[in-house]
């Protein structure tokens, strides 16, 4: 699992996978439920899912306690 989380945090291919997961979530919300989301909200779902995956990954140094200090 650690190897997968490291890949998810550092691979450019993983970014495409995260966007695909977000797009699948938006599609499910729009087509399986009766929400009929506008295109703007579907794009928002894609962005939020991608950010949540990154934020919840303990090996991603961009978020949480291990974030990169950019104030220098």
In short:
The protein has 72 residues and is mostly helical.
Q: Tell me the domain tally.
A: 1
Q: Find the count of extended strands (DSSP E, 2+ residues).
A: 0
Classification by helices and strands? mainly alpha
| Straight-line N-to-C gap | 33 Å
Round the mean pLDDT to the nearest integer and report it. Answer: 84
Q: Helix proportion of residues, in percent?
A: 55-70%
Gyration radius, to the nearest Å?
14 Å
Describe the global form: elongated
Order of helices and strands: HHH
Which stretches are poorly predicted, pLDDT < 50 over at least 5 residues?
none
The major beta sheet can be summarized as: none
Strand content: under 5%
Count helical runs: 3
Describe the structure.
- The chain has three helices and no strands.
- The chain is mainly alpha-helical.
- It has one domain.
- Helix 1 packs across helix 2 and helix 2 crosses helix 3.
- The longest helix is centred in the first third of the chain and has 20 residues.
């Amino acid at each position: 699992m650690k190897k997968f989380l490291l890949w998810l945090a550092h691979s450019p291919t993983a970014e495409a996978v995260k966007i695909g997961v977000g797009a699948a979530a938006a599609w499910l919300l729009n087509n399986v439920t009766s929400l009929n989301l506008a295109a703007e909200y579907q794009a928002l779902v894609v962005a939020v899912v991608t950010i949540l995956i990154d934020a919840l990954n303990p090996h991603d140094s961009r978020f949480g306690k291990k974030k990169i200090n950019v104030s220098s």
